[in-house]
Amino acid sequence: MHKSLRIAALAAACAVAGGALYGAGAATAGQSTANSTHEPYNIGLLVKDIDTYYGTTTDANGVYQASPDSPYAKDLARIDADAKRRIDRAAQKADRHHHAKPAVIFDIDDTLLLSLDYEKRNNYGFNATTWNDYVNKADRPAVFGSPELVRYAQSKGVTVFYNSGLSDDQRAAAVANLKKVGADVNLDADHMFLKNKANPPAWLKDCATPGTWNCTTVQYKAGTRKHIEQDLGYDIVANFGDQFSDLDGGYADRTYKLPNPTYFVS
Hints:
Helix content: 25-40%
Number of helices: 9
Strand order of the largest sheet: 5-4-3-8-9
């Protein structure tokens, strides 16, 4: 996952300082910044606001965690409740139309697995080596409610797919971590799509060839959703992601933007 714009996200967030900074579905990722002669919001205060939003605490092992009674958790609960109603309607429609193949698709980083500890320890910066080490520990906590939502979709007969910016080399760690948090549903390669820059799939041929990767996040994720719908024959009834680039590009009936005030992936 490319996160070179983490600090840019903090700067962009300055524009929305004060009040309820990060409500459900709101994030800096979809906002552009403009040059201004006004003094920006103080970055130290912004970090405090982010901690308040997450209800940031440390557990017995010194790992930064979000609080289950935080504004962040409450926003997620509202999103999950709406998503379950959406899944229910899709399942009922599938029962009436036996040829229907409803599906949901989830991003992984900060949609299913929370990276708050990495963000805090790296001052909201990014380093490819430390990020890879962090992912490969396979010990991230769950984003509140998301593993339950994965299992809920499965229980209703709605097929679960994953569409992540993690690399194919990180597949084993992603699978192990998702199992650990209880999202043990369809973790095979036919349902979990990760970036394979060395041998990209044929459906990304417009932006990637073996050894050459020119896909933007939107091209990669929308192109994969197009493959799921047009080649595999599913109807993606809901698409979940913490970045607008997880959601843009079509090929989903409904999108759910999970809150993430800590970085921006274009």
